[in-house]
Amino acid sequence: MLLPITGEDGFILDLRYATPDNLTGSPIYTRPVALLLPAARERLLHARDLAARLGFRLKVFDAFRPVEAQWALWNAVEDKRFVADPRAGGVHPRGAAVDLTLCDAATGAELPMGTGFDATVPESAHGHAGVPAEDQRNRALLLGLMTAAGWDHYKLEWWHYQLPQARGFPALTAAAVPGGPM
Q: Does the annotation mark 123 as catalytic?
């Protein structure tokens, strides 16, 4: 069962795949909804609380991604290291991954991270030498908060986190979405 994460939970939502502001240039979700497995939602709530104690909020770009949406991204991205092969399922279609960033709690402004969300460039990797020191610190802060809350990261994307056991859950289609397909 997938559960929603919302602004009422204290998150800032910027669900890019429900807008044309994404890698494909077109919306791939028909409605903006962020969903996670219960275990992933619990860990994200924990990360939210850790961030809040330090004066930050989490901005969520994506969470559960139906297999159909995974295909849209797979077909749009040239460098396949940045999108999991839909035939293998990936971790977003399992409801066990989230894409996010840190924001200042007072202003809502995103902390600089050296690249934008979904930038399919080498500089998006954790620890990339071409990223300014301040942006590296911000990435390290996000990594520390998410790791402390029980998440694992993908080394090529500073914004991507997943449950350590993510591949143990089944990949789901849009039909699994509460309230109808996304």
A: no
